[in-house]
Write a structure and sequence with these properties.
The protein has 380 residues and is mainly α. The chain is 47% helix and 6% strand. It has 13 helices and 8 strands. It has helices at 6-27, 32-46, 49-55, 64-75, 84-104, 110-125, 130-147, 152-166, 174-178, 282-294, 316-324, 343-354, 366-378; strands at residues 80-81, 172-173, 194-195, 205-209, 215-220, 227-228, 259-260, 308-309. A hairpin with a 5-residue loop joins strand 4 and strand 5. Helix 1 (6-27) packs across helix 6 and helix 6 packs antiparallel against helix 7.
Length: 380
């Protein structure tokens, strides 16, 4: 497992989330000023300096539930609200899109080009807001400084870590189904044609050498596809032609944002039954998540009436039906147990959990909030 994977996972999933929200805000005719505020607030939160300092520290990936918690909070960092069914759908689209991109990367290092495509698009979202743009540029500089120095082997390890994270996710997405890049069982179709990885030769030739290194024979064979050589390598600088199109906005063309669950729910990681046995590493994971989320400065709307709801389904009825049919194991139930006797830890967690309480809700005691979060994370 690579300890350098988390920043790339977060930035690419965050980029896909912004693509989808931008499309839905336009599709629902949300006023331009409100839509811009939503995008700016989310990007500001996403690229918060303290948050990114924790994010870029070498560390293991979080569990799926822990990462989902971070994106739940990030998606509600502005006046926009999503109900649970729409949030499920948003996260499904984000994860399947990035999984597809990781699978299709010609070489492991190209995952960084995918990340730069997302960063370029995010920069374009905030090009008229210099203060936020500087936050995005600073993160881009960190990506260049840290990741361009990594070896091919380290990128291979990053790719394997990402594939392990995504391996049980087989959610059908309408765009992929229509483009015939995904089968009806939710698995992706890998192409057998197109450009080969930069710096490699097209398949079809076997060369044999003597013991002194002289070429003595050549054999031609059918490569099983229509391959061609890559003309140039994508740019790993702040600006430039990335060449690779993976990670660009596939919703820029007017297409419906739909997702259909696989025929058998056991094929979906979202529907996989969660092991309720306490995880001995849960406390350490909780500490890492607490540090991350402690740096996430979510801006609370001062006027509740100014908020609005975004629906990722075609109609409210479809959204309600999806919520009703939502499996029980997707519910984030919290049990109140005494998980630790560390009062200082409880107090710190209570402070973090206090930011989750919506205006008007009854706030539980500080100690119970810390225990509740510990109990929830024990099930990750």
């Amino acid at each position: 497992m690579s300890t350098r994977t988390l920043p790339l996972l977060f930035i690419n999933l965050g980029g896909e989330m912004l693509y989808i929200l931008d499309q839905r805000l336009r599709a629902q005719n949300i006023p331009a000023d409100k839509a811009k505020k939503v995008m700016n607030d989310i990007i500001t939160t996403m690229f918060n300096k303290n948050f990114l300092e924790e994010l870029f520290k070498p560390q293991e990936l979080y569990s799926k539930k822990a990462l989902r918690t971070v994106f739940d909070r990030l998606a509600h960092a502005s006046i926009m609200r999503l109900n649970q069914a729409s949030m499920d759908k948003l996260y499904d689209l984000m994860t399947m899109a990035f999984k597809y991109q990781v699978l299709l990367c010609p070489r492991p290092k190209d995952i960084l080009l995918v990340s730069f495509n997302h960063m370029d698009a995010i920069r374009d979202f905030v090009k008229d807001t210099p203060s936020i743009l500087s936050q995005v540029d600073e993160t881009n500089k960190q990506l260049i400084e840290i990741y361009t120095a990594l070896s091919g082997g380290e990128f291979q390890l990053i790719r394997q870590t990402l594939l392990i994270f995504f391996q049980d996710m087989h959610i059908r997405v309408s765009i992929f189904l229509k483009d015939k890049v995904q089968n009806s069982n939710g698995r992706f179709v890998l192409p057998t044609s197109g450009p080969v990885p930069y710096g490699t030769q097209t398949p079809g030739l076997i060369r044999m050498f003597s013991c002194v290194g002289e070429e003595v024979k050549r054999l031609q064979f059918q490569g099983g596809g229509n391959y061609n050589a890559s003309l140039r390598e994508g740019s790993f600088e702040m600006y430039g032609d990335r060449v690779l199109k993976l990670g660009t906005n596939m919703y820029s063309v007017s297409r419906p944002v739909e997702t259909h669950m696989s025929g058998t729910s056991k094929n979906s990681s979202q529907h996989t039954k969660v092991n309720t046995t306490p995880n001995p590493l849960a406390k350490e994971e909780l500490n890492m998540l607490a540090r991350l989320m402690g740096g996430l400065e979510v801006q609370k709307p001062t006027n509740i009436d100014s908020g609005f709801r975004v629906n990722l389904f075609a109609t409210d009825e479809e959204e309600e039906e999806a919520f009703i049919s939502r499996p029980d194991d997707l519910s984030y139930e919290v049990l109140t147990i005494q998980a630790t006797k560390d009062k200082q830890t409880n107090a710190e967690l209570a402070k973090i959990m206090g930011e989750f309480v919506e205006a008007g809700e009854t706030t539980p005691s500080s100690s119970s909030k810390g225990d509740d979060l510990l109990a929830m994370m024990d099930g990750l």
